[in-house]
Amino acid sequence: MPVITSQGLTMQFGPQRALDALDVTVESGVTGLVGANGAGKTTFMSIVLGLRAPTSGSVQVLGLDPAHRGPELRSLVGYGPERNVFPDEMPASDFVKHLAEVRGMPHQEARGRASDALWLVGLGEERFRPLGTMSTGQRQRVKLAQAIAADPSLILLDEPTDGLDPVQRDEMLALIRQISAEYRIDVLLSSHLLEEVERICDHVVALDAGQLVAQGRLSTLVGTDEGVVVELVEVEDRPNALAQVVEALVGAGFDVRQEPGSFRFEVVGTDADAVADHVRDAVARSEARVRRIVRRRRRLEDLFEGARR
Hints:
The protein is of the alpha/beta class. The protein is built from eleven helices and 13 strands. The strands form three sheets. Strands 5-6-7-3-8-9 form a six-stranded mixed β-sheet, with helices on both faces.
């Protein structure tokens, strides 16, 4: 059974439509909810949690209707919000324990689970520190700890790597993937960083301005060959070679994406071999020199590019 399903889900805030008739299915595993800031990701999560009622349409989460069975549902779901809403003077262990109790866990069990969760996310030695003295990376780990402490079936994480440096981001993503795999917890991870989702997610739900762009298994949406990546060598006696190659390919009907200030560009097309042949001919006519030509892999970014054309 799917973890989350929605039919015609719409959310209107005055003249602004935050969600526009979404038909979404979230399968078991790690699902990336992707889109730019303002795409509707947080609104979708708030409806899934039963914190907002949709303007129209319906949603089922773990077989429950959030609008009518919100408290029961929230006892089964962990949530890590984007905002840092911490009581600065409270020790991390007390904070995680309290939220486990809010979800219905008995006091003694909640205390033990809070300690276990903080050790799991790498804060065992820091568990008695006041939240206000912790770094951004440590606070993000506390959010994850409180989301998993009450043994949920599903966790919702809203921008869990926000504010982290590259090393911390890698560690957080690996931790989320580990927790899902080892403890069989389904994850809905909201992010505007598409590369993160491509790294750890099984499925994707892509939103743009409240509309569904694409959904499905990540391996079927991205990763297939689609065109080539070309890098030319700058040659002093052929200063216009790059422009001539690009102009020829655009004239042949290809989508050419240049990197400003570089001799590298991507040529998008469904038949990578045919694209490579056109690139070869354009390079030969312009007498340019090639450093490399490699197959281009389709990315999540391409889903949004296609939807906006």
